[in-house]
Amino acid sequence: MKNMSNDNLNNVLKELGAWNPMRDDYTNSKFNKYSSGPGAYLDAAVQPAQQAEAGNKQRSSISKNVNDSSTSKFTPYLVLKHLPPGITKKAIYNICTRHGRVSDVRDSTKNDYFFIDFPTVAEMESVYRALVENQYGFHVLVGKQKNKQQTEPILSDIEETLPSIETEKNVIDFEHRNYRSSEKNLPRPHFGHTPIVNQKAYETKDSLLQRNDPQRHFLITEDAHELERAGLKDYNELNNMETSKYKYRTGRAFIEMSEQSKTYIEEKSRQSLGGYDWSRQIYENNHNNRGIERPKDIGQCANCDRSCDIVCARCQTYFCGLECQRKAWPKHRQICGKENIKNSFKGLNENLENKCFQEEKVHVESNNKENESSLNTSTSSGVVEKSTEMQSRKIPRSGNLVALTAVSKTNIVFIRSKADEDNLNFFKFINNVQNTAKQLKKLSKTPICGQIVITNFAGQYNRAMILNSDNEQHIKLVYMDYGNLDARKLEDLYEAPEQFIQVQRFVEPVILKDVPEMYMTEEIRKFMYSYLDGIDLVVKYDEKNDLLSDKGVYEVELFDGTTNQNFNKMVAKLCKPTEPTNPDEAYFVNHLPQKQLPEGDNIELVVMDNSLLCTGCISCSTKKWAIEIEKFQSDLQLYGESLKDQCYTPRIGELCIAKYKVDGKWYRGRCLEIVGDGFPSIIFFDYGNIGMVNVKNIRRYPAQFTFPIYTCDCEIKGLPEQCEADLVQKLEELIPNGSTIHCENVTVYKDDNFHAITLPKLIHNLKAEGLLKEKV
Minimal CB count within 10 Å: which of 205, 224, 272, 565? Predict the structure, then answer.
């Protein structure tokens, strides 16, 4: 090889010195760009290659057009949210500089957010991943491109994290995940709920249910206390309230007394003053068999002419309630308290009283004759029937005092008039039922739908109407004079005497105006139950406009008789879920009660999800609990759809509301881990599957959603910790999602919140097919 001349050698060396492949790659937009992570979603102009290629031209352009956002250089920055109280700029600077260079730390004068500026996108991404992976406890958001002079957060800074991310697998970071996601996204199982009573029960020929409930009230008041009737709710849990005097069950209050107390009350009851007997025109007093004349303190309402015993405190004019007094006030105010007018009213009231008394006497006598002629005995069923319908009493007048007797749903309750006459008649009737209870005969055959019987509720005998008797060990009925539903055995039911069947029921269902029908949480239940122990309420409604003719009930407002607080508004406030506004307001799994599956032998469970069978585990619940889960799903959908489009990245372990991509609906979830790719791992704990959900499909968890966790993880005994694909496929065939399984045994590990179930037939089939090896 010939020696190269000095000139040629110098030229080659110059060319080699000018050749910089790294620089060429750096300015190559196809080679040098962010394809994943936060930098991948920035504007193309701020990608490394484009910035390098622009060089000094871009800087000069920026200096000439500082206010031109279209040509200004983008400064990469992060937004920090939910920071601990009292944290300083210096502290944030020190944290961030551990992982990359920081240009500036800015804070907002309007919000508790901090902005971290970086010299390059690479520095921003390095710090971003470090903050997310180290789980410092605050939220880290990638700032969107805007003018650097703008220091206040814009909407995208506050409400969103990353721009839209396609759900391709190459976008999700699988490498750094510790939790195994569900291999299949299965549709949610559905479990049918059979109502206690349906429309057909009212439409059958000679239906007793139609006769005894012509308004069909009990079609709308049936499902708030299903778990209590099924015996799946802890009795002590229901009665865990501040007062020990009253106990609660199926939406009704009662007093738990010793036998000595019951004997004492029975003796006093026999000596009570009783009530006014309209047919005999006297007040009956059982003590010494004395009878007294009709009391003089019953008069006629000056506004509506009805009999009443309430008088104006200043002038003693009779009014049947607050509403009538208000209506009469424009005229009544001119004469209220004047002696001469008072005397004239007194005479007028006496005349009206006598007139009303005569009309009432004729009315009672007429009713007695009709009842005597209309009764007949059915030889086929042994049930006393009536050709006339069993009418309920009219709803108490607007403005009158009422008692809350039973809670059916968040927006449906039963009320009873507390007017003096109605109160006396009610307690007299209850007393009569108790006195005759010892002579009652037990039912000899299964009752029919609509039949009236007598049964014992917490030591007190009550009239009840049969709603469903398909199962003799679980006969569904409603207590007619209170309104709550229950389930009793055939052996607990007694024949109702004819005189008890004729009496109209003392309660009426009403719908609480402006109160939504929501799932009955323990907070709502506790508040509504507190009004069952004798607190007076005032009912208000418009007689013409508030009647829902299709349901046969009124929409009403109830007010606390002592404080005048609006009962409806207080219930509605507890019902309405509100999105947390405080950055520190986060809820974790200890916010919710966790139910344990029944323990023991021969337990029937339903499979809520089997997408993690590769681990030898499934998620199970009872059928009753699964139905409860479906009930509060409607509340979750309304809440999720009511929120504006936004993003939320929950903390590790934080509860959230997340959208399931199979059906696009919202479900409860808990964040398991965050790896910085915008797809936190979320476990949908009401079903048991684990999925990676984009942050734009996650919302904050409201404090009002305190529904219990009814679903539990269950290990199938005999399966390996890691199941092969062919074994998983066979397991999916034998125990499909939504199926019912009969467990030979269920063992509960309370400390670990875990269950082990025994399925011997399943294991035997797997071994027979060679999918499981015998243990040596």
Answer: 205
How far apart CA 165 and CA 124 sit, in angstroms, is 19
Strands 537-540, 401-409: pairing is: antiparallel
Range of the domain at 304: 276-377
Could you give the residue ranges of the DSSP H alpha helices within 603-704? 623-642
pLDDT at 744: 95
Residue 320 lies in a domain: yes
CA distances from 85 to 82, 583, 655 (A): 9, 11, 22
Is 691:660 a contact under the CB 8 Å cutoff? yes
Structure tokens at 142: 């990638």
Rounded CA gap, 35 and 48, in Å? 12
Reading the block at residue 185, the tokens are: 């996204």
Domain-ending residue, one of 359, 377, 395: 377
Find how far residue 300's CA is from the centre of its chain. Answer: 46
The answer to whether the beta carbons of residues 495 and 443 sit under 8 Å apart is yes
Give me the pLDDT at residue 332, please. 82
Q: How far apart are CA 769 and CA 64, in angstroms?
A: 79
d(CA 735, CA 737): 7
| Same structural domain, 601 and 737 | yes
The runs of H, that is alpha helices, within 271-338 are: 322-332
* Alpha-carbon separation of residue 304 from 300, 301, 358 (angstroms): 8, 6, 17
Judge whether 469 lies within some domain.
Answer: no
pLDDT tens track for 166-203: 444 447 888 888 888 888 889 999 998 888 888 888 88
* pLDDT higher than 50, residue 372: no
**What pairs with residue 386 in β-bridges?**
375
Smallest CA-to-CA distance from 375 within 508, 500, 535 is with 500
The angle at the Cα of 52, spanning 48 to 58, to the nearest 5 degrees, equals 115
Q: Please give the Cα distance from 71 to 687 (Å, whole number).
A: 51
CATH number of the domain enclosing 721: 2.30.30.140
H or E stretch at 368: helix 339-374
Task: Tell me the C-alpha to C-alpha distance, in Å, between residue 109 and each of 101, 104, 117.
Answer: 25, 16, 17
Question: Number of structural domains, the chain?
Answer: 3
- Determine, yes or no, domain membership for 726: yes
User: Is the model's pLDDT at 619 over the cut of 50?
Assistant: yes
Q: Assess whether 142 and 288 both reside in one domain.
A: no
| Tens-place pLDDT, residues 276-317 | 455 555 545 554 444 444 445 667 788 887 777 677 777 778
Residue 120 has pLDDT above 90, yes or no: no
Q: What share of the chain is helix, strand, coil (3-state, %, to 5)?
A: 30, 25, 45
> Domain boundary residue among 114, 133, 159?
159
- Computed over every residue of the chain, the mean pLDDT equals 78
Q: In CATH, what number is assigned to the domain containing residue 122? A: 3.30.70.330
The residue among 596, 626, 613 whose CA lies nearest residue 746 is: 596
| C-beta separation of 560 from 537 below 8 A | yes
